[in-house]
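User: For my dataset I need records formatted as: sequence, then structure tokens, nothing else. Please produce one.
Assistant:
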Amino acid sequence: MGKKKSVAEARRIQLAQTLEKFRESKDEVYTFDSTLSNKERALVHRACKKMGMKSKSSGRGSQRRISIYKIRGKVDNMKGRESLTNMTFSEGAQVVLQDLFTHHPPEDGELGEKLVEKYSGKTAKVRKKKDDIFSKPLMSDTEIAEKVKTLASRIEKDPNLRQINEERSKLPIASFRDVITSTVESHQVVLISGETGCGKTTQVPQYLLDYMWGKGEACKVVCTQPRRISATSVSERISNERGENVGNDVGYKIRLESKGGRHSSIVFCTNGVLLRVLVSSSRSKREDISDMTHIIMDEIHERDRFCDFMLAIIRDILPSYPHLRLVLMSATLDAERFSQYFGGCPIIRVPGFTYPVKAFYLEDVLSILKSADNNHLISASASVPNEDPELTEEDKIALDEAINLACSTDEFDPLLELVSVEGGSQVHNYQHSLTGLTPLMVFAGKGRVADVCMLLSFGVNCHLRSKDGKRALEWAEQENQQEATEIIKKHMQSLLSNSGEQQQLLDKYIEAVDPEIIDVVLIEQLLRKICIDSNEGAILVFLPGWEDINRTREKLLANPFFKDSSRFIIISLHSMVPSAEQKKVFKRPPFGCRKIILSTNIAESSITIDDVVYVIDSGRMKEKSYDPYNNVSTLQSSWVSKANAKQREGRAGRCQPGTCYHLYSKLRSASMPDFQVPEIKRMPIEELCLQVKLLDPNCKVENFLQKTLDPPVSEAIRNAVSVLQDIGAFSHDEELTELGEKLGYLPVHPLTSKMLFFAILMNCLDPALTLACTSEFRDPFVLPMFPNDKKKAAAAREELASLYGGQSDQLAVIAAFECWKHAKERGQEGRFCSKYFISSSTMNMLFGMRKQLQAELMRFGFIPDDVSSCSLNAHDPGILHAVLVAGFYPMVGRLLPLRQGKRFVVETAGGSKVRLHTHSINSKLSLKQSNDCPLIMYDEITRGDGGMHIRNCTVIGPLPLLLLATEIAVAPAKGNDDNEDDDDDDDGDDDDGSDDADECDTDGDEILMVSKSGGNEKVMSSPDNSVMVVVDRWLSFRSTALDVAQIYCLRERLSAAILSKVLHPRQVLTPVLGASIYAIACILSYDGLSGISTRAESVDSLTLKVRATEIDKPLTGRRGSGPNTNRLPVDRSSSYWKAEVHAYEAVRDGTEASSCNEQAPVMSVGTSLRQASSQGPISVASGSGMSKLQGQGPREGSCKRRRRGSGKKSKQ
């Protein structure tokens, strides 16, 4: 038998489209027909795994079929019972709790006041300093005239500014200046459609400013950009063009960073920043929107999620602000759609300026490499013309008229002029709007042989058909034009022969190589061919990710041809490589040396490398996305869109004519989507959902999001609303809570806001600020550039994490920032960053962001102006771990026992089994016992090309989770013997676990029924009764009835304290709440790490370099040299213990005299646990709810009652 053929590319494309269509449908199952081959079914199986779906084949022989299913995660509530972790309070914690409940028992009714959960519609009075950067400058006519005069004088006197002004006048957009200003004056919405390089981003804001100043009017032109770096760099560029510093007439405001103020007439910002201004203005009736005269939204074709959301808001509010002008700026692609969204607003089309680029596809590349002796760069027949700009309506009318004249009166000059002068495939292949005739059909039918030959040499499409179904060949035959007929026939046969040979090469290649895998051998051969056939010009290679960059780099360096560093410089470009390495791409190499850049899509639009002449486009990209159907992040290699491909191709023609090699077929190119999926459809949208409610508390989230250009799928909205309900921002019926309103104040994700409030309450602000800014920006670690450095980088992270006891990727980041800060103070920043693989620029950015975020907390009154005492518990490991839980909940999982030779697997609440990424510090955990199952908190689950994994996580103990989880329930503790049969069933059910999901739900209901029934009273009747406490219906712990009752009460008081301080940040907590919060901090300090069943390993000291930063010395508030993962009860005879008892005596004795309105000499926001002994009644700063808050205030007599999340549905 002959070798079975692989799956043809057309079939691959068809199957992929079928799978995508099914995933977006509401169907739960799809069955392919029995015609699929074995290899096609195998392809479907692989694709389903990558897409997070289940596939199963059934039947035999010719009737074998494959069915695909959507996976709906279900919680297996019975798991975890066979090996319950004990949750008991240490001796020290027990005394703390006994003292608390002696003086503030649950029955004393002090918490009986009603807690208002739903948002009242009135903004709580907080000390809030106004940010006026979006307010219009207060300038008189005279002051404006003086500014105009000063600007003109600067330009006249400064030769450099004169040169810049001349260059500005040569930009393509310069000739549209008057059209733009007059159209904006007469229309409320205007769309400017222009290619990259036309100058719209830097010039349009200045045109509008100069126009307004010319009328003697002040203005506030707010310009949005999708990226932080764009907002800052463009503002710097415009300031430079006007001869002034950033922050004067031109400023910027990005998340947690700003320059400028009310005096700035042009303000650049990110889309997210302006969104918050619009929402805030709508909510508080402030004058920000009234002060804006123009909003310019740039790069709207990139479809940033905030941009799409903001377009919907602005479209709604424009009728209320007739003075406001909206200018939309986009690439030429899809401009009509944006115009229609705003009721057919006028479009101003501006041509770009790029040099011509020859484009080759995979079949061309294979032919080039086969003909090794021919120089492909001087062979005209091998090139494919670059795509032309779209024809305007005027162009189409002119071509229609020219074709009509040629057909009816034999007047050929107008058509010849358009074809030869205008040129381009859009003109050569134009089809008449009514008849479908092309210029080739006209010339063929008329026997214009020379003109036919000219068009054929241009590469026109001979296969186009007119409305009556005839091609140019049939038109020549019909009109009996024999010579034209023969010429067209020969040309088509030649194309067929070449095409057939290319197709054979392509089919053979695809049979041997998976087109979705980067072929580094092909890239190596093509690079060599380019270098042989040309002498100079940098080569830019687009690759999906770091692994592919490394593989390609290693392949090239192993080749003697590329090994000579005097002839070739190979540079890796990735967002996470050190900035010094990134800067190398901009330097021109010495004469005779070729620069080869291996890059991700960062080089598509973010940067321009001016000496690039050749581009190799793999056609693949790795993009962070979100799968709402499985509620996981994805980071997978996928095909680019046509817009991406065009952008990559254009990189070769920015500064001179160039060549682009697309390593995918023309068929694949035609099947690519026109654009990337809009971000609003591929990212979690918790922030947007919260902003909807802040904008209009009475509006249903899904109803508002349906107004966007491309609404997110219902699953994404439901997932986001569920998260907001989990953290108490929304009630069970999707109403905005008072807490939710405060969470929306801060310019960070709601989960991050929640962590900050809890950290303030616990006097642990400093590390929370670091984590908050890292989550908004990026972590500071850089990728090792050489294979030998990989282990060093991993060791460096572990060493930093060891400062906080290890077992945490998040704590490694906190330690890295603290070490860096000390190193910088001692002038050793460079050495530290080099040794520990830290990005200095990222650290400096985080440093600035932290200051800005701290200022925001001050601005809203959540922390005092003097923050020196807000972080005295920042190095208490138990409290710090609780802060992490507050920030990452509900992202909790359980490490399953490690199988020999396998990586750690994490079980999640949804029942998924997820691997720990080798990048994680915890991938090398050493467990005390083989059946230990530690709890972890993680930032996200990512589905990559190799399956699902968790990259960053922290091992935690049960106490922080019990205090902060959405719900806990109680059931009678059962013996392990009762569960042995369940274990056997689980072990044998790997493939069909989803079939038993209904049983899992039933079991979960039984647990909750026990917790709510009369049997629960019996379970809790005796303090020493052994009980099982279940967190969020899946994680089980063994405890005593007394301990669980105390936890219930502490949870109620924590929620009450949080809401109280959120609503009244300047007021002191009531005595009972203050004492309870203090007790929570104490028991977290004692027992926050108890129950962590990892082996306590020795922690080596940092290197001499880090010692110089003094980080390894004991820090204030930190016990010993670091946290002990097996903390023992405190010795009651120790001086520290006596201090703690004395602290409680002080609290007890001072409670009766204190008032919730008094700011007495008390333990305030910055008091450490150790300092409390010398202070009176407890006062804490504001905080936020860590778990769902009740519609009614918790009653002290209800500490045995299950604390229900408001309407919290079971996790499925």
